[in-house]
Write a structure and sequence with these properties.
Elements lengths: L8 E3 L14 E6 L5 E7 L2 H4 L5 H5 L6 E6 L9 H10 L4 E5 L17 H14 L4 E7 L1 H12 L6 E5 L11 H11 L1 H10 L16 H4 L8 E6 L8 H9 L4 E6 L5 H4 L2 H14 L2
Organism: Streptomyces nogalater
InterPro entries: AB_hydrolase_1, AB_hydrolase_fold, FrsA_esterase
Family: Belongs to the AB hydrolase superfamily. FUS2 hydrolase family.
Length: about 290
């Protein structure tokens, strides 16, 4: 975790692939409603730097008012290569704000594996609005996919479109070997040690109390905000009944993409898919 005070702003000294241009990305520590410092990285997008001789032209471009807020999967963070790659594709369609969930990377606190993380996403969305973006699209992967669903349900009207990739439909699922390993990681003291020192993820030891709203119960509350559910037919964590259950719960309001040959979350979402997601979001967000 950074020792820089929450709310302090600094220019990034590292520019991962996909974050090229002008002044580079801006790193900021946000403060959540429950006081956790969350590291974020803001990139104003390629339109600001590319193809505009006049800065005023960039500020008035069609994609300038849109920002993608990316919610990574469990054990991810803003500097993971797969998160930076997704951000690198999305920045050609709008601004991008990435952040590390609590307990991940240099953010404070400990992971609650999808519960209090809604507060982290809320802080990032509020940051995007303060930066002047009229259209905000949340894009979540796996755990982050469940978080964007719950955030949109609990804070209606706070975003303009929602994309959930590889998300579970229900809690406590143990039907696959990867999910059984994840439950060991989260629930056992030795598992949490592996998470802390092997995966750079600090996991809270307390059980959920109360159990948060499940993704499948959240989905019906999202309408009329546009919703896209994306899932791979080779997802080793959550089989296809999860996205289909989510889409059914949406009552015809959600678009469902079942991607042939795709595995799980950010690692499996190739650049072409991310670009298609961006095109959908630009259109759906108005």
């Amino acid at each position: 975790m950074s020792k820089r005070p929450a709310g302090d702003v600094a220019r990034s000294t590292v520019r991962p692939k996909g974050e090229m241009g002008g002044g580079g990305p801006m790193r900021t520590f946000l403060r959540t409603a429950d006081g956790v410092p969350v590291e974020s990285v803001y990139d104003p997008g390629a339109a600001v730097y590319e193809g505009f001789a006049d800065p005023l032209a960039a500020s008035s471009s069609p994609c300038r008012d849109l920002v993608f807020v990316i919610a990574h999967g469990f054990t991810g963070d803003v500097d993971r290569p797969h998160v930076r790659r997704v951000a690198g594709v999305l920045r050609h369609h709008g601004a991008v704000l990435t952040f590390s969930f609590r307990g991940h990377g240099r953010s404070g606190g400990r992971s609650t594996v999808g519960d209090k993380e809604v507060l982290d996403l809320a802080a990032a969305v509020e940051r995007a609005r303060r930066l002047g973006h009229a259209r905000v699209v949340t894009v979540g992967f796996s755990m982050g996919g469940s978080v964007v669903l719950r955030h949109a349900a609990l804070r209606p009207g706070s975003v303009d479109a929602v994309v959930s990739v590889s998300a579970p439909a229900r809690w406590y699922y143990r039907g696959t070997a990867p999910m059984r390993r994840l439950h060991w990681l989260v629930t056992r003291p030795e598992g949490r040690l592996v998470g802390r020192y092997g995966l750079r993820t600090r996991i809270h030891h307390r059980d959920w109390d109360p159990v948060p709203l499940s993704p499948v119960r959240a989905v019906p509350r999202i309408a009329p905000t546009p919703l896209l559910i994306v899932h791979g037919d080779r997802d080793g964590y959550f089989p296809l009944d999860h996205p289909r259950t989510l889409a059914e719960a949406a009552g015809g309001h959600a678009d469902l993409w079942i991607e042939a040959g795709m595995g799980h979350a950010e690692h499996a979402a190739d650049d072409a898919l991310v670009a298609r997601i961006a095109d959908w979001a630009v259109s759906a967000a108005g």
